[in-house]
């Protein structure tokens, strides 16, 4: 089994994040607080409790370079926490939201962060040195429902979002004075703030977690219809695939390499998806199982050149009526896994170590390094 550490921190955890050296973890125990634990002599000790929000904290991200923590809450607020001495001091971010903030993530360069909300908007927040505060620019009138997840492209400009309107979208977040024109980014750096690069209509249900591959060439996101979608060459003529599975839906995803994705969700056990030499994605196995007990006919991958009028007409693979229903797989988590975070240093193309947290209050650390059947995909 790939799990190397299991920690029962609370009765329920909504989200978590790690410090740069992985010696501290911040998580929300399903309330309006953020608890920070430090590893000391092989034991985890509570060292800080961040108390500023009025409602459940649903998003946490810990910047690796600047050591800042950003939080987002159902109370429509976001705070940036700076460590001053032994205390964490909050700075209010002006979001201008009339609905709950649902997710948050720092950009790769950490000069801005994105907040998804129930107000059908995305806030791109950046620091104004002159006024000594964090302000936001809003991407409006694009989403038809709540924004459930955000993911930054490695170029620090493109942002992918998923929404309960079933769509995944990619926007430009270029802000004059914050970002710089980069010849390597091509035409992307010439696009205006809030400009929609592409809208992906592959899912016919709520869309949740979304992530970019380490190179930024592939985008993966999940739907509440027990499907995961992979999109290459994001732009006017993307290439789209989907993988349908008979188990419970996923909530979040993580690229561990260019050819492997880990999906987590309501089945309480991480699922491994990988691409073969042709670039066709398929389900491999549950991470809690040493070998796959499922035949390839149980899962289907549909590859389509999505362009012109055919784009968006994603086809479901053939199903097998003889497939047994979803069953408990004896995983470590006992409830829905809602968050997955990489434990590998940023910039690495291989992220063999990662952690998951769920509604059972556990944080589990996983390591794929010694998984022989998966080594070919790493």
TrEMBL record:
WD repeat extents: 50-91, 140-172
UniProt keywords, alphabetically: Actin-binding, Cytoplasm, Cytoskeleton, Repeat, WD repeat
GO cellular component, one term: Arp2/3 protein complex
A molecular function GO annotation: actin filament binding
Subcellular localization(s) per the UniProt record: Cytoplasm, Cytoskeleton
Top-level division of the source organism's lineage: Eukaryota
Pfam families associated with the record: PD40, WD40
GO BP, sorted A to Z: Arp2/3 complex-mediated actin nucleation
PROSITE patterns according to UniProt: WD_REPEATS_2, WD_REPEATS_REGION
InterPro entries: ARPC1, WD40, WD40/YVTN_repeat-like_dom_sf, WD40_repeat_dom_sf, WD40_rpt
Role description: Functions as a component of the Arp2/3 complex which is involved in regulation of actin polymerization and together with an activating nucleation-promoting factor (NPF) mediates the formation of branched actin networks. Arp2/3 complex plays a critical role in the control of cell morphogenesis via the modulation of cell polarity development.
Subunit-level organization: Component of the Arp2/3 complex composed of ARP2, ARP3, ARPC1/p41-ARC, ARPC2/p34-ARC, ARPC3/p21-ARC, ARPC4/p20-ARC and ARPC5/p16-ARC.
Similarity comment: family membership: Belongs to the WD repeat ARPC1 family.
Family matches, as PANTHER family: ACTIN-RELATED PROTEIN 2/3 COMPLEX SUBUNIT 1, ACTIN-RELATED PROTEIN 2_3 COMPLEX SUBUNIT
Name of the molecule in the record: Actin-related protein 2/3 complex subunit
